[in-house]
Amino acid sequence: MAVLGRDGIIYYLNGGNDDELYSTADNLRQSSFGQEVYLRAIVEFSNVCNKKCNYCGLRAPNSKVSRYRMGIDEIIESACMAAEAGARTIVLQSGDDFSYSPAQIADIISRIKESHDVAVTLSLGDRSAAEYKQWFNCGADRCLLKLETTDADIYEKIRCGENFHERMELLRSLQEIGYEVGSGIIVGLPDYTVEQLADDLLFLSNLELDMIAAGPFIPHPDTPYSPAVTGDIDISFRFTALARLLNPFSNIPATSALDSFDSEGRKKGLQRGCNVIMPSVTPVGQRKDYNIYPGKNSVSVDVVDTISRAEELVRALDFIPSASKGSSRRMNNVQ
User: Fold this and answer.
1) How far apart are CA 209 and CA 203, in angstroms?
2) What distances in angstroms separate CA 297 from CA 42, 125, 142, 300, one per listed residue?
3) Residue 37: what are its φ and ψ, rounded to 5°?
4) Considering only Cβ atoms within 10 Å of each terminal Cβ, which end of the chain, N or C, has fewer?
5) Rounded to whole angstroms, how far apart are CA atoms 287 and 291?
6) Model confidence over 40-90: pLDDT tens digits?
7) For residue 299, which phi and psi values (nearest 5 degrees)?
8) How many Cβ atoms from other residues are within 10 Å of residue 335's Cβ?
9) Using a CB cutoff of 8 Å and minimum separation of 24, what contacts does 165-171 make?
């Protein structure tokens, strides 16, 4: 396959040659990561959010969602249970919920790291760079800060007036602090074109990200985008496969949104260039209420079963659930 430019990306996004694209992406994943697949266990500790994003079921104006906040000890217990079940990375995720003080987040990180030899990833939204630096100094290893689109005007529209450039400034600050940084977009936002997706892919690839995430758009019934057309799962598969071609050593997850379209969506993602899965280990009582999109967290099993199911999915494809923390190959200059 020739070096990809914008025209080539558009060709493949339009389905020009799926067999070639997926085969090349799978071979490149194999050469970069072998048969290992990294498991990232997500503790979604609060679904309270002060944002009004038009696409998200957790948006502040949504009065239909049942809100929850987990206590500090409950968060730590969930993380430790996941670690004891075999997870080597714990993702602490929430809506933009500022009720947790910087000191409380620091305490959660420190206690998890003291209890288990795991990596800690933060997905906490628009907290300040100073707070993120404090948490890095407490042992946090990685940050996930999604963009959802790299078009500044569309970003402002879907996030109700927020500023894309401020988000980018925070992302660059996270890289300067020393985090392994992940970002990504939603594939198939309303009225979005394949050409815009190609621009997204090139933009993300120029950021030197340690993780790139992209999942298909699923309209939530309790948002302004409820009448919108659902994203195309095939274009989502093509996007992540192309992301693998342009970013050989970045971690790329097969997102849970894929399974909302296809019961074997994540399996197909792993066969098409992805090397990460991210099962939710949020307690069963709260898990269903972290409802960003329909179908999210629809399976309610305990933490041990969640990790076991994820490992079974990986083994069924003749892959190996990795026993490592899955640190960035890109950051560590593995060539």
Assistant:
1) 11
2) 11, 20, 23, 7
3) -125, 130
4) C
5) 8
6) 999 999 999 999 999 999 999 999 999 999 999 999 999 999 999 999 999
7) -100, 120
8) 8
9) 167/126, 170/126, 170/129, 170/145, 171/145, 171/147, 171/207
* 3-state helix vs strand vs coil in the chain, percent to 5: 40, 15, 45
pLDDT for residue 335 is more than 60: no
Q: Residue 302 CA to chain centroid, in angstroms? A: 21
Question: 316 to each of 199, 243, 247, 272, how far by Cα in Å?
Answer: 35, 24, 26, 15
What single-letter DSSP state applies at residue 69? Answer: B
| 2 secondary structure, DSSP code | P
Q: Coil, helix or strand for 126?
A: coil
For residues 272 and 20, what is the distance between their CA atoms, to the nearest angstrom?
Answer: 11
- Where do we find the tokens 């003749």? 318
Of 253, 218, 226, nearest to 237 by C-alpha is 253
Q: How confident is the model at residue 306 (pLDDT cuts 50, 70, 90)?
A: confident
Using DSSP, state whether 31 is helix, strand or coil. helix
Question: Given this model, what pLDDT does residue 13 score?
Answer: 98
Q: CA 97, CA 127: separation in Å to the nearest integer?
A: 9
Question: DSSP code of 324?
Answer: S
Token code pair at residue 213:
């995430």
Look at residues 110, 30, 87 and name the one whose alpha carbon lies nearest to residue 324: 87
What is the β-pairing status of strands 211-216 and 36-46?
unpaired
Helical (H) or strand (E) element with 234: helix 233-246
Distance CA 150, CA 335 (A): 28
Amino acid of residue 32:
S
